[in-house]
Design a protein that fits this description.
By secondary structure, the protein is an alpha+beta fold. It is built from six helices and 16 strands. The chain is 22% helix and 29% strand. Helix 4 (43-66) runs antiparallel to helix 5.
């Protein structure tokens, strides 16, 4: 049996159970974010808040325990139908992987029919200093695909001759976004990743596992705090959609090809929010989505909670009118967004690969006056 006195502190704390007990204690303490004085107090919102923590816990364990080895990387999901972070886009299929700027990688797969894919590298993260520094990005318009749709991307700090995604020594992770026009009718891309400079096996390392537990709890606590802070910022312009701070969006993992209009909405039972985009610029797509207080997209599997360039109905002059309401306003308003039992939350309008980012107008009206 290994002598505890010969272990370093991190390994010793794992072996004697201290690391596990601290993990469990910090999980309990994370509930204070949901119970804070800036958050909703209804049982409904609290239930969603605590469910949010369980979702973040699943995501954190997947990232920092199961998929943390940068020499044996794998794609996983920090956002999907039941894990939702930071106004996740219902039109997107997300994947993540952990990397190191010290190694070289190859991504390989097939394109599918999805119209837009971006692979973006970052340094840092929510578990670290809450800041994701962009270190390189490439998208499907820059990739040389083979005639059968197959492709490979080389990810490294040193230049490559073809399909190069640049990293630098700060790089620690990657976010992949596949953005669909009509999700149900398109085939997603499939891909895998391998480390080309691997120099050790994949057996569990006790010190790394202990660090993974701590990083998981940092991720749960920091992520929930970040977006409660965002909701506090959005209080300055409720029921409006001004341009957000784009640098802040990029430094929390945003795509450089997207212009973000994050905000907060709140409606009384007899009110509706009318959103109008008078000018639609040349763009690959745009979309609008509704989310809850915790910046989780509402359940797009069963409800109409978003609309985009390809699914929207347009006015005769080419403009778009969207209505957020608690009940269906009828056939005159085909771009109806359901609130799904919520009376407040966050919302986001995106311009994606757009030549310009025109104003989006909003107004609150009585539902009966629509």
């Amino acid at each position: 049996m290994e002598d505890l006195s010969l272990m370093n502190d991190e390994t010793k704390h794992l072996a004697d159970g201290t690391a596990w007990r601290e993990f469990c204690r910090e999980l309990g303490d994370a509930g204070d974010v949901i119970l804070g004085d800036r958050t909703p107090t209804s049982a409904f919102d609290r239930a969603e808040g605590f469910r949010y923590l369980t979702r973040l816990l699943r995501a954190g364990l997947e990232s920092f325990v199961e998929s943390s080895d940068e020499q044996h990387p794998r794609f996983f999901q920090l956002s999907n139908e039941t894990i939702k972070i930071g106004n996740d886009n219902p039109d997107n299929l997300y994947h993540n992987t952990n990397l190191s700027g010290e190694h070289d990688y190859r991504i390989f797969g097939t394109r599918g029919t999805v119209p837009y894919i971006s692979w973006a590298c970052y340094g840092g993260g929510y578990a670290d200093d809450r800041h994701m520094t962009p270190t390189g990005q490439i998208d499907s318009s820059q990739i040389d695909f083979n005639p059968d749709g197959s492709f490979e991307i080389f990810v490294s700090a040193k230049p490559q001759a073809r399909n190069w995604l640049q990293m630098d020594p700060r790089t620690t992770n990657m976010v992949v976004r596949q953005t669909f026009n009509v999700r149900a009718s398109e085939t997603p891309a499939t891909y895998d990743i391998e480390c080309l400079s691997q120099n050790r096996d994949d057996r569990i390392d006790p010190a790394s596992f202990a660090k993974g537990l701590q990083d998981t709890m940092n991720f749960v606590r920091n992520t929930s705090e970040i977006f409660v802070d965002w909701m506090h910022i959005f209080e300055q312009h409720p029921n409006e959609l001004p341009a957000d701070d784009q640098e802040r969006c990029q430094n929390t993992g945003g795509d450089k090809n997207i212009h973000y209009k994050n905000s907060r909405w709140a409606l009384a039972p007899d009110e509706a929010l009318v959103i109008e985009a008078p000018i639609i610029p040349r763009c690959s797509t745009w979309n609008f989505q509704l989310s809850n207080f915790w910046l989780e997209s509402l359940d797009y599997r069963h409800h109409q909670v978003s609309v985009n360039k390809h699914t929207a109905s347009y006015e005769k002059d080419g403009s778009v009118r969207i209505v957020v309401a608690h009940e269906d306003p009828g056939a005159r308003y085909p771009n109806w967004i359901e609130t799904c039992g919520h009376d407040e939350g966050s919302m986001l309008f995106r311009w994606i690969e757009a030549d310009e980012h025109p104003e989006v107008l909003t107004r609150v009206v009585k539902f009966e006056d629509l």
